[in-house]
């Protein structure tokens, strides 16, 4: 009986430890291009983003809360709304589609 309690306890601990890394937050990852093709955002899934345009590229960071994204690049920040395959800038309405 004592052996069964130990086995069950070990299994429960293993399941809890396996779920510690689980997250219900979806990961934002991939390349999103503006409708006119002039800007591209590359999200790495770990909070880093690269913005690419005619001026070159800039690296920054991003955070996700639900389906709201905050991007910070060179001290400039903006918020956007993320739907599965699109990102829409909350201020300008610009739409970026996942490639």
Overview of the molecule:
With 99 residues, this protein is an alpha+beta fold. The chain has one helix spanning 2-20, and strands spanning 29-34, 40-44, 48-53, 56-65, 68-73, 76-83, 86-89, 95-98. The chain starts with a helix and ends with a strand. Residues 4-20 have low confidence and may be disordered.
List the helices and strands and how they pair.
Elements: H1 2-20, E1 29-34, E2 40-44, E3 48-53, E4 56-65, E5 68-73, E6 76-83, E7 86-89, E8 95-98
Antiparallel strand pairs: 1-2, 1-8, 2-3, 3-4, 4-5, 5-6, 6-7, 7-8
In short, what is this structure?
This protein has one helix spanning 2-20; strands at 29-34, 40-44, 48-53, 56-65, 68-73, 76-83, 86-89, 95-98.
Beta-strand percentage range: over 45%
Please mark out the parts with pLDDT under 50 across 5 or more consecutive residues, or reply none.
4-20
Order of the strands making up the biggest sheet: 1-2-3-4-5-6-7-8
Order of helices and strands: HEEEEEEEE
Major beta-sheet overview: 8 strands, antiparallel, barrel
Gyration radius (Cα, Å) is 20 Å
> Mean pLDDT, rounded to whole units?
83
| Helical content band | 10-25%
Core attributes:
99 residues, alpha+beta, eight-stranded antiparallel barrel, 8 strands, 19% helix, globular
